[in-house]
Amino acid sequence: MFDGGYDFSNLLKTSDATTRGDNSGLSTKDDMSPTFFRCLLTEDERQQRIALDHILQLLEESFYFDNCELVRTHLPRIVMLSTECPVALLRNAFSDFLVKFRPDLDANNIVIPQQAASPSTFFSGPDLFVPVDTSDPTVKSIFLSSFLTTGRVSHLTRILAWHPTYYSNSNQTWQYIMNGNGPLLTPLRIYVAILAASSWNSSYVVQHLETEFLLHQGDPSWLQGIQNAPQKIQNLMEINALLAHQPWLINENHIEKLVKGEDPWTISELVHLFTIVAAARGLASFASSMGIVPEIDQQYIQSTSPQPDQESTATGSTGSTEEMFDLSKLVEQLREDHSFSEDREMSEKEKFAHFSAAETAESNSVTDDQTVSHQLLKYNCESSNIRYTDFDVHTQKGLAAQDFSWSIQGYSQIKQFYSGEAADIIDETFQCIKNLTYDSFNTHTQVDTRPFRLAIWYYVHRLHGIFHDDYDYAQVNRWLVIHLKKFIKKMISWPASITALDVRNIGVELQPQEKAHLALLVTEARKQVELMYSLRAIMNYHTHH
User: Fold this and answer.
1) In angstroms, rounded to a whole number, what is the distance separating the alpha carbons of residues 52 and 21?
2) Who contacts 446 (Cβ-Cβ below 8 Å, separation ≥6)?
3) Is the pTM of this model over 0.70?
4) Which residue, 543, 281, 278, 523, is CA-closest to 409?
5) Which ranges constitute the DSSP H helices of 27-163?
6) What's the sign of the alpha-carbon dihedral 150, 153, 157, 163?
7) Cβ burial 96-126 (10 Å sphere, 16+ → b, else e)
8) pLDDT in tens, 492-535
9) Which of 215, 244, 345, 466 could cross-link to 199 by cystine, CB 3.0-4.6 Å?
């Protein structure tokens, strides 16, 4: 993920300039590691070897000509490449470099930084994560593609590799909305993604996006704070905050404010923008829910890095027996014929009663502390007073899916104002995660998990006031226990507050890969929520103007 195109021409020249200190290249005071190593990102083995030899020569010369400044600057990236690079040639070369020059590093009091023990503080265990040198052809292709486009196999990608089918679909979506045809320029696409991820306090995702922003020639001053961005972008603060915390409040008036005035947005730009912020917030939510830690070369101080619980990290166990749904009983119920619940006729009053009862006070897990960290407040300064609040089915107006659905109205809005291809790709990702199943629950196999998966999807929609009249919301409380509902609610309200204890005490005994699958369902359901509300506002504005 975070894959983005970049012009790699003249990068060897840049590397030379870096070493010499010429004005023609980046100075060593800049965070230029991504640029310095970009010449390695080629499938041409001969060119890759030439680039590698050139970089190793520059690094070796650094011990003698610039007081090791180049090595100091790039050492975290060198360590990462020596252990987490999927290309054996590069991985072995940088590993050998560290061994060969260890005495020189020690002599210059240069400490080799230590890798994180795991891509996640929430999960640990031997052979839990797919190794970067995997022989699995599908995952190997994913890792190589990620490295060749971003210079890394991110910890996010390592966890998503548990579900390669989903990764391929979601990455295709990300690639299209960030690099494909569309009305927004690439730096602007990345910047609005930064705004979205920062609204949920995701330092991990923001750091990756900030790097991509600079690599795509974005204005560095914008990264000092949104006050340095054009007024047109500053005008997005309110709607970005509402989409993050109370999307049901978005209406055509918000759209009108953005498309009129001195720095107006076009409808096409807004539709493109809404697909980006929904996707970026999805990445932020998933990264927080999985406790993903930054890669070693990230020089961003992450005050909001996820912390492991003192007792243990989350493995297949999920807490005491009293706190968990009896897995055998759950599996037994799933194996029963459940079609009656979908076919039974219900009155509108009964449907609403079930919809209302799907969320109860005992499942509330929203933290009062929804404070954006100091490092990210610069992107949210004027909208920081907007917080998540529960949707009240009795006093607030939500959205009836029979009046505005993703599959009909939402899809058509993207197709009309942005791209038919984008609409197809986004829809394919939704369908992929909704249908993704391994027909198992922990060690139990040949289990139809569809009722459980649907309950998660519709519960997320229920939390945001979206009502589907063809779903019996009584199924939510049938399949989702309180601890699981609390976890889901944290994911869609303030995912930065999720801890290892939350993941371990999820209420159902699931393997780490299954917990990631569950989190992806929540992520995509929440993404669809955001698109439905924003695109409905677009449709209503367009209808009345």
Assistant:
1) 20
2) 439, 440
3) yes
4) 543
5) 33-36, 45-65, 69-84, 88-100, 102-107, 137-150, 155-160
6) positive
7) ebbeebeeebeeeebeeeeeeebbbbbbbee
8) 999 999 999 999 999 999 999 999 999 999 999 999 999 999 99
9) 244
